[in-house]
Amino acid sequence: MGKIIVTGASGAFGHSAAQLLLEKCAADDLVFLTRTPDKLKHFSEAGAHVRAADFDDPASLPAAMEGAERMLLISTARVGTRVGQHRNAVEAAVAAGVNHIVYTSLIAADAPDNPAIVKLDHRATEEIIEASGAAWTHLRDSQYSEAIAGAMVIPALMAGHKPDNCADGKVAFVSRDDCVASAVGVLTQDGHANTAYTLTGPELISIPEALAMASEIAGKPIEVEHVDDEAMFAYFDSLGVPRHASDIVPDGPIPWSSDDMVTFGQSIREGFFDLATVHVEKLTGKPPRSLREVMLQHCESWPK
């Protein structure tokens, strides 16, 4: 097996993947790409190759991709503008000889009627990879348990209430750590070419049920207010969240848009997340962690 590339190795997912790969592979076989190599000195000191790469600068990519056979392409953060970045990365990787691309996608990315606008970026990227000539594996992640245990629960506990447009739509929330381990499994095993895996946690839970679980763990009330999509937009407007991806200020305080979040909730409400699979265990050899386990891991950071 040739060298393995991890893109975005300074980010949370990429950094975790890099650490796990160092436990399983020879350091010299690992290439970690980042716009900020100084942040990854600990990996180069461990013997891995840390290379500067900027997907907005295609000229930086041929040298970054050189000598590798497999690549974990972690979706970049810029919803609405990242397809061009992903295309640059895929084209450079294939030109450099990468023959298998593993991509972090989204549950139901290939469902044409899925209303979540974030799926447009993911499916467009999947199609670019499928047409590239390289083997592909799409890892279609459900919603991260960590996003619930942190970004959703903390403000809900502080306010005592949370508007929500997901109704009773079910989600098999998945730990990001399990998604990282699944990606590393695909990168270090054979037999996963040209396959899409939906990665989920073990149980289907609605957002109101998830918030009730957090309320019980914290011993503080959270009242869920069932609202329609327009009221959800108004709530995000009140927080100063930009409506559209095109309105996001680069490197600003809020890196996401409300149309992304509201249509994500609509997708949950309409049943596009209502799926639990065994793929995490198949790829990692371990059962996926439950939402409660992740909440108990994070509850020390919750408001007292």
Give an overview in words:
Helices cover 41% and strands 16% of the residues. The protein is of the alpha/beta class. The protein has 2 domains: 3-141 and 176-199, Rossmann fold (3-Layer(aba) Sandwich); 145-170 and 202-275 and 288-301, UDP-galactose 4-epimerase, domain 1 (Alpha-Beta Complex). The relative contact order is 0.14. The model has no long low-confidence stretch (mean pLDDT 96).
N-to-C span: 50 Å
Structural class by SSE content: alpha/beta
Q: Please state roughly what percent of the residues sit in beta strands, choosing from under 5%, 5-15%, 15-25%, 25-35%, 35-45% or over 45%.
A: 15-25%
Average predicted local confidence, pLDDT: 96
Please bin the fraction of helical residues: 40-55%
Enumerate the spans where pLDDT stays under 50 for 5 or more consecutive residues.
none
Instruction: Report the radius of gyration as a whole number of Å.
Output: 19 Å
Physical arrangement of strands within the biggest beta sheet: 3-2-1-4-5-6-9
The CATH architecture designation of the largest domain is 3-Layer(aba) Sandwich
